[in-house]
Structures are given as C-alpha cells and as structure tokens.
C-alpha cells in the first residue's frame, strides 16, 4: 500500500513538472506551424465570419477561352505534379527572366531554382500559383497571361507593398501568432493591410514571416494570419506570352518590383 501511494504521488509530481516550462520556449514553439496544423486547428473550431470594410478580392471565375493556353497550362500542371524538370524546361522561353537585373535564360533559371534537385522550392511555388489561377495581364489582350491572379488582377488603387490578399475561404484570423491562439473570426477572400514590423518571427535573420499581422483598411479588424493564407501582389508570379508561332511559353518567374 505504501509503495502504491508513493508511486501515485510521484506520478502527480512528474505531471506537474511536465506542465511547467520556460514561457519563452512555449511561445517560440507555438509560432511555427505547418499548413496541416492550420487546417487541423480550423476544423476543431469554426469561428464566426469576420465583419469588416476590407475589399473583396475573389479568384477568377471566367474560364480560359484560348484552347492553346488551356493545353499549355495542362502540360505545365502535369510537369509540376510529376516534378519533371526536363518537361518543364521545354515550357520555358529560352530567355526567361528570373529577376529585374537582367538575370535569366535557361541556365540562369536552373541555377536559381535547381528543378532537378529533390526538395526544390520551385515545385510547391508553381503548384500554389496554378491552384490560385490567373488572368490576362491586360484586359482584351489574348497574347499574355499571368499567375497568380493576386498579381495580374490587383487593383491599382491599393499599394502592392502595403496590402496582401487572403487566398483561402475561412482563413482563421488569430489574436496571437500561434496556431493554438484564440480565433478572432474567419476571413473571406479579402485584401488586408500588412505590418511587417509586428509580424513573427521578428528576428532579422529569418527568410520569411510565419505569422503576418494584418488589419482591415479602417483598422477595426486586427490579428495574425498564417503565411499559407496570404499572398502578396509583389510575391512570385509567372508571366506567359504567346509567340509569333502561336506557342505559349513562360517568359518570367520573378518577385518584387
């Protein structure tokens, strides 16, 4: 009986110790989340829809009419699904731009993205852009097209460096930069103001923010949004042009301005 009682006390003590840890470590651990974590957390709790004056910015619904562009995009999608570097290169313009400094060409593209390497960042990027869909860069011009629509259809009235688009219906706005934080509300496809200085992680050494601090234009709606639910109009975009032979090719894969 004494051994049983002692064991019970020991287990209670160990449980209490396991719940007591460095608060900063807990906070740091909560900041990083995968898209799967975000989806799981959203399914566990369905908050009310956000009410704000944020501009609605829905993806394109009009089907692509150019049969040759449809066929090209199917080929591109297949190459991305199979991560087929050789096939992808045949879909690129020989002088494809990879930056605004004159860099590019097929060799420059391979050097920048290394599509043949396992784990290349190119494939998930192209997959995301294809999933979002695109539009012609200029209305009425059937010789060009761009992915994603966040770039090609961005309203000129909004500064592309100050605002970003919510790209998933039901994206959860949270009170703190953590997947376990309280849900403020569920967002629709809207445009929100972003604040880099308040986004996390805040170290200058990180490549990109995990959680973006966002607000409606009037500032009444505020909170943190995971990077997987947000896309910047100056983020990566793919530009396509139809050449004189009627062939579609990717002529640029760039970011910034």
What tags apply to this protein structure?
alpha+beta; 5-stranded antiparallel β-sheet; 32% helix; globular; disordered N terminus
What do these coordinates show?
- The chain has helices spanning 2-19, 23-31, 35-44, 67-82, 85-90, 105-113, 122-132, 149-152; strands at 92-97, 144-147, 163-166, 171-174, 183-187, 191-200, 211-215, 222-226, 230-231, 237-242, 248-254.
- 32% of the residues lie in helices and 23% in strands.
- α4 packs antiparallel against α7 (122-132).
- β10 and β11 form a beta hairpin.
- Strands 8-7-6-3-9 form a 5-stranded antiparallel sheet, with no helix packed on it. It has a 4-stranded mixed sheet with strand order 1-11-10-2. The chain has a two-stranded antiparallel ribbon with strand order 4-5.
- The protein starts with a helix and ends with a strand.
- It has a domain at 81-143 and 236-254.
- With 257 residues, the chain is of the alpha+beta class.
- The chain has 8 helices and 11 strands.
């Amino acid at each position: 009986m004494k051994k049983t009682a002692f064991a019970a006390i020991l287990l209670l003590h160990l449980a209490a110790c396991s719940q007591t840890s460095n608060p900063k470590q807990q906070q740091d651990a909560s900041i990083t989340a995968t898209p799967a974590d975000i989806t799981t957390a959203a399914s566990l709790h369905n908050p009310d829809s956000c009410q704000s004056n944020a501009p609605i910015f829905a993806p394109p619904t009009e089907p692509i009419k150019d049969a040759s562009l449809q066929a090209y995009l199917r080929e591109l999608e297949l190459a991305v699904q199979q991560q087929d570097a050789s096939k992808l290169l045949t879909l690129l313009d020989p002088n494809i731009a990879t930056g605004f400094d004159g860099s590019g060409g097929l060799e420059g593209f391979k050097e920048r993205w290394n599509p043949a390497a396992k784990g290349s960042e190119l494939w998930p990027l192209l997959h995301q852009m294809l999933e979002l869909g695109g539009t012609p860069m200029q209305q009425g011009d059937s010789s060009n097209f761009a992915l994603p629509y966040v770039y090609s259809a961005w309203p000129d009235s909004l500064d592309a460096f100050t605002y970003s688009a919510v790209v998933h219906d039901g994206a959860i706005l949270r009170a703190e930069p953590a997947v376990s934080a309280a849900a403020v509300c569920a967002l629709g496809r809207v445009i929100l103001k972003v604040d880099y200085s308040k986004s996390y992680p805040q170290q200058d050494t990180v490549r990109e923010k995990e959680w973006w601090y966002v607000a409606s234009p009037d500032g009444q709606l505020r909170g943190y949004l995971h990077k997987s639910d947000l896309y910047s109009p100056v983020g990566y975009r793919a530009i396509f042009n139809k050449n004189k032979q009627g062939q579609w090719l990717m002529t640029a894969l760039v970011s910034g301005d």
